[in-house]
Amino acid sequence: MSKVGSRFGAISVAVSGLLLCGLALVWPEPKEHRPFALAVGVWPGMETLTLARESGVLAEQDVNFVELSWTSAKMMAFENRVVDGAVVTLDEMLRLKGGGHNIKAVLVMGASKGGDAILAHPAIKTLADLKGKRVGVELRACGEYFLTQALHTVEMTLEDVEIVPLNLAEAENAYEQHELDAVVTMDPGQTRLIEKGAHSLFDSNQIPRTLYRVLVVREDFLKDREATLRSLVQAHFNALPALQSGHTEEGMAAVLRREGLTRKQFSAALEKIEEYSQEENLTLLSPGPEGLEPILKKMASFMKYEGFLDSDETWQGLLDNSLVKGDL
Description:
Number of strands: 11
Strand order of the largest sheet: 2-1-3-10-4-11
CATH superfamily of the largest domain: Periplasmic binding protein-like II
Helix content: 40-55%
Number of helices: 14
Low-confidence stretches: 1-18, 23-29
CATH topology of the largest domain: D-Maltodextrin-Binding Protein, domain 2
Shape: globular
CATH class of the largest domain: Alpha Beta
Largest sheet: 6 strands, mixed
Strand content: 15-25%
Distance between the termini: 52 Å
Order of helices and strands: HEHEHEHEEEHEHEHEEHHHHEHHH
């Protein structure tokens, strides 16, 4: 590993550890005496929940938003029971299930259609040019899976590049300082880096129907907090039109601050997300070929082959459509 990888990786692990230890100290364990704790990262498709929070639809005594700006911290928070739910990609959900966590996906918040990408400096023209180059990526997260999939398209593996383990914020900064040759990122970081001269070698449009982001919750909370979770799911659907139109000024101001984007940039980022209605969610979260199960099964097989999972059976029993049924 390069010096930059060691330095940034150590900072990431140290900061994550301190953050989670601090949260664990102040967070009482009995779930019946505290709000539902939801880990929220920075991704345009989940800002429906920011709008719901800003409008007062989601009461603080019911849902507490735990702001975690990078995926590895979000995964650690879930694994350490600091949070009860999180927005994750399907591969991240499989990792959580593989780690022994009883979880369910209860809402499909969107699928990436170009919002995740491998960006490089202008001198690097193709994915094949990454051989031996320094690539910043967040390990044990979607970026690692995405990079592996991309490299497979040019008959390369992770061993063909120099992996520099960084969280998304660190990777963005390191790329700007020319400490990396390429970076695996997603919006909003992708938008900012492209405007600074980076170009895309590969994006999620090239592996369609793969990078879905879902809301996962601990299985026991489906019964214990059913009313709260139904409100949370419905708040997402209700806020979708406002997020797409941007017509809620106060709420959008909070969204743009979180994302670090202008209104125009944010609108462009949203166009790279396939969003799903309540009816479409019902299909995706139901058994059968039209839902997510075939995708999860194929993904689990690939992840086991790559050594990301110990078993390729982790895809079973992960989907729950009970909360999206509503009045349908």
